[in-house]
Specification:
Layout lengths: L6 H12 L3 H12 L2 H17 L9 H18 L23 H20 L2 H12 L4 H8 L3 H24 L3
Helix pairs in contact: 2-3, 2-4, 2-6, 3-4, 4-7, 5-8, 6-8, 7-8
Length: 178
């Protein structure tokens, strides 16, 4: 961003650059914090931090840059003891809004969503993080490596292990009627 822009111009430029990625930032924050209110706070703090340091952005992938800031803000808060680690599963029922669909299909879909979300929540943080970035935010391996600050090979390995663990959790839950 241009250091010589006025405050209004800087704000408008930042909004144009960052706002299209708000959903991806919230999605990552939601899975990191495991709580929608903490995720809101995390995204707000991360976007404030991004705005403050936007002059340092040198181009490249804006989404990966913003998600890196979300991730750093989360881990900084954990390190500083600011974040409380909640263990609340993401509730798919809160986000369903298709009233025209078959009620039985809606219930089945929500049950499946809850089951997958519960299994995803059981994954270790490093595995859950790469799986969310890849499968939900559709980031490339290179982007995930940039966000998590790990080599691409590590990203690929974690992603493979995350998928195997997720499948095992889902099979285990299925066998136990969960």
């Amino acid at each position: 961003m241009d250091k010589y822009l006025g405050d209004d111009d800087k704000t408008a430029q930042f909004e144009a650059m960052a706002m299209p990625h708000l959903d991806a930032a919230y999605n990552l924050a939601r899975w990191l914090t495991r709580d929608e209110h903490d995720a809101d706070d995390l995204v707000q703090n991360a976007y404030l931090r991004a705005f403050r340091f936007a002059d340092g952005f040198r181009g490249g992938d804006v989404r990966a840059w913003l998600l890196t800031i979300v991730r750093h803000t989360y881990y900084s808060a954990l390190r500083d003891g600011q974040a409380q680690r909640g263990d609340i599963s993401f509730d798919e029922a809160l986000h369903g809004d298709d009233e025209s669909a078959d009620p039985a299909a809606i219930v089945a879909s929500r049950d499946t969503g809850r089951t997958v979300n519960a299994a995803l929540a059981q994954l270790p943080q490093a595995f859950r993080e790469v799986l969310v970035l890849k499968e939900m935010d559709d980031l490339s391996y290179k982007q995930i490596a940039q966000v998590t600050e790990t080599p691409i090979g590590t990203v690929m390995s974690r992603l493979a292990r995350a998928r195997k663990l997720l499948l095992a959790y889902l099979k285990h839950g299925e066998q136990h009627g969960i």
